[in-house]
Amino acid sequence: MYLNQLIGQGGDMVSWLVWIIFFMVFFMFYPRIMLSQIMWKLEGSAKKLEQLSLQSKRMIYKEISKKPSKHVKDSVDRFFEFFMIQPVNLDPYGVVKKFDHLIKNERERFEYFTDEVAPNANAEKKANIQMGMAGGIELHMLSKIVRHYIEMIKKTKSYQIAMIIQMQLPLIEKIAKALYSGTRTLSRGEPIGDGIGPWVVAKLNDGKMKEIEEGVIMSEKKMDGKHVILMKAKGPGGRIGYPGKAVDKVVKKNKIARVITIDAAAKLEGEKTGSVAEGVGIAMGGPGVERSYIEDSVVKNKIHMDSIVVKMSAEEAIQPLRMSMIKSYHNVLGAIDRSLSRTKKGAKVIIVGVGNTSGVGNDKKAAEDTVKFVQKYERKLKLKKKKKD
Question: How many CB atoms lie within 10 A of CB 192?
Answer without folding.
Answer: 28
